[in-house]
Amino acid sequence: MQIRPRRNRKSPVIRDMVQETKLGTENLIYPLFLEDGVGIKREISSLPNNFRWSIDLLLKEIEECIDLGINTFDIFPAVNENLKDKLASYSYASDNFYLDAIHQIKGNFPDCVLMTDVAMDPYSSDGHDGFVENGKIINDKTLTILGKMSIAQAQAGADIIGPSDMMDGRVGFIRQELDRNDFQEVSIMSYTAKYASAFYSPFRDALDSAPKSGDKKTYQMNPANKREALLEAQLDFEEGADMMMVKPALCYLDVIHLLKENFDIPITAYNVSGECAMVYAASQNGWLNYEAAMTEMLLSIKRAGADGILTYFAKDFAKFCKK
Ligand code: PBG
User: Fold this and answer.
1) How far is the CA of 219 from the centre of ligand 1 (A)?
2) Which single residue of 21, 67, 278, 279 has CA 20 to 30 Å from 1?
3) Number of domains in the chain
4) Inter-residue contact 123 to 76 (CB < 8 Å)
5) Residue of 72, 111, 64 lying closest to 309 (CA atoms)
6) Which residues are known catalytic residues?
7) Residue 309: its pLDDT value, please?
8) Does residue 8 sit within a domain?
9) Confidence (pTM)
10) Which one, of 201, 194, 187, lies nearest residue 167 by Cα?
11) 34 within a domain of the structure (yes/no)
């Protein structure tokens, strides 16, 4: 035999030297859930190991993560039902606890990168990402609300705005609103190819944000479609997205690869709640090795082409790397 690929696998040092994909804590973005109050750390039953925090304890958690090498965070608010309305008006209210928390996090940790979520669902009495009228999502009226939300988050100190709503034209609209208000330096990481997925349920449990009626299929993409992701990406790119995300990650590695090959801006992927929940559940049963499965999953998302990965594994992966 002239060629024996196994020679390049014969020892840990050789394997490390020729490893094609490397993953470090600098690639990870940690999604965290916030609720109003003090002294709260409430585990999410369908997402073990993840919590709803009040800001006092969240600040401590973020400090621990920074010590472990995680420096980018995406915060999601769990909003009390009585603050929700059809227009999601609490999302940009001056006494909003989420905006206050953004301000406090950036005040305490000015060097961390803070991403915020732009979509109506956590604040909407309909539980939808867009404004609902007669059972329909009204796209262009939603844009106005998303614009206000983005400005409020930028004012609070957000470094990256993450529109997760999948309305048409929102990236361009948000960019224009940010620039008009002198927030040229605030970035947009758009949820470019966000699929109508079964893997979001633990997240919706965490925030009590499931749609009150219907589903999200008129705005989130059909899992069967790939070329449509190119159209979404073309639009977001032209409208000024700084980074483009594919969500979920695992069932859509081909889409991550496709966007990476076609667009010269960073591509990110959201390793969503249901994907992580599968690994937690199987490892709690002793069916999978937690650290090995988590690492393989993250590595495969990076290998497919993701520069950054949003993942609930971020802290555990960082701890694992330290060992
Ligand atoms: C909603 C939003 C969702 C997630 C992030 N932002 C859920 C949805 O679209 O219903 C899901 C994230 C996850 O499952 O981890 N704007």
Assistant:
1) 13
2) 21
3) 1
4) no
5) 72
6) 194, 247
7) 98
8) no
9) 0.96
10) 194
11) yes
Per-residue pLDDT of 83-126, as tens digits, reads 999 999 999 999 999 999 999 999 999 999 999 999 999 999 99
- Residue 200 Cβ inside 6 Å of ligand 1? The answer reads yes
- CATH at residue 73: 3.20.20.70
pLDDT tens across 114-162, in order?
999 999 999 999 999 999 999 999 999 999 999 999 999 999 999 999 9
Substitution site in 129, 190, 309 for ligand 1 pocket (most atoms within 8 Å of beta carbon): 129
Q: What is the DSSP letter of 128?
A: -
User: Is residue 223 in a domain?
Assistant: yes
Q: Is residue 135 included in any domain, yes or no? A: yes
Q: Would the CB of 312 count as within 6 Å of ligand 1?
A: no
Q: Whose CA is nearest to atom 2 of ligand 1?
A: 164
Cis peptide before 248, with omega less than 30 degrees from 0? yes
Range of the domain at 68: 23-322
Residues above pLDDT 70, as percent of the chain: 100
pLDDT tens figures, 21-41: 999 999 999 999 999 999 999
**Does pLDDT of 223 surpass 90?**
yes
